Amino acid sequence: MxxxxxxxxxxxxxxxxxxxxxxxxxWSASCANDLPACDLxxxxxxxxxxxxxxxxxxxxxxxxxxxxxxRHESSGVRAARQLVTGKADCVILDGRxxxxxxxxxxxxxxxxxxxxLMPVVLASVENxxxxxxxxxxxxxxxxxxxxxxMVGLARQIGRVLEQPARTIEEGMGxxxxxxxxxxxxxxxxxxxxxxxxxxxxxxxxEVDELLRVNALDAACEAVxxxxxxxxxxxxxxxxxxxAEVHLRRANPGMRLDALxxxxxxxxxxxxxxxxxxxxxxxxxxxxxxxxxDEQAARTALKRRDHAEAARIYSRxxxxxxxxxxxxxxxxxxxxxxxxxxxxxxxxTELGNLRGAEEAQAIYERVVGPPPxxxxxxxxxxxxxxxxxxxxxxxxxxxVRAYRAMKHQPxxxxxxxxxx
Length: 419
Prior knowledge:
By secondary structure, the protein is an alpha/beta fold. It is built from 20 helices and 7 strands.
């Protein structure tokens, strides 16, 4: 038997901790009056997110609320190990982690007696009713919709900390053994051996039947093992069905992730038409966001790994229009220190993979055609010589007129221009 962490007192007046002058200076009196009382000085808060922007924003707001110990982690497995050893008192959770979703992380830590009642506030961009209800059913303590305000964060943390401390016993699905079994699934190698082909077909048919009757939880549980297999074709089919699950659950972010994984897996399997369909859906759903391959190519270019970037763009040319790939290359090179040189080196590597003619065409679309050689400036020189001759003629006439006036000061000098 273990005891859940005792929630600290909520009012600053009750706890005896006075706000610092710096924190008072940051906010006007009206804003400070809107903030609910919430003492975080003794709290150890763990921010879980794959987005560094979200993590920085969460940490900044928590520090302004008075928190002194705020840490960031992006891996659900590492975070779960930290929490069960008592290294945090509260969690601010994003919807996506490196190795699992935010809701999967909540279900995981709820299996351990030490973390079964730990306050977890989910900060998500999903604002649909179905997404909120699913998050609450997973065991979260509070829900924030990004972007949120300082007042909203303080209210959510204050609300979850107001819950009285309770005792949790092993049993009823809560045990260290269940936690370790689930952790072993996430800590195991991500790629497992695919079942036989007939077994895969039977499992996919079972998932399709579950989707037909709208049994989303059962369908998700049945298809997740297939999504972790080493066979890219099986993995792609599994992610297509996961995308359908997230569509019906009104989780657009997780649906985008599933479609991206499906497209990449279809590429690896050589099914370029299916991959093109997935990427077209991604582009239609989120036109401004780069795809996973495009993001990987940008990262490779920033590392000046032109061979890896060329390999990725060569794959993209199999499933996307050349004009779209050229725009992607142009955007990626634009954010490097030397865009023209990087474009030239990238197209050189593309020439090794797809031929010099195609690479040259891509280079001309990205950078522009090579400049034409300058013509001989014959006409310009002739024009300059004519002007110079006119200037010299005027100068000779002026000198001669001056000399004539000097020798005959009483008479006006009349000279012909050719004299």
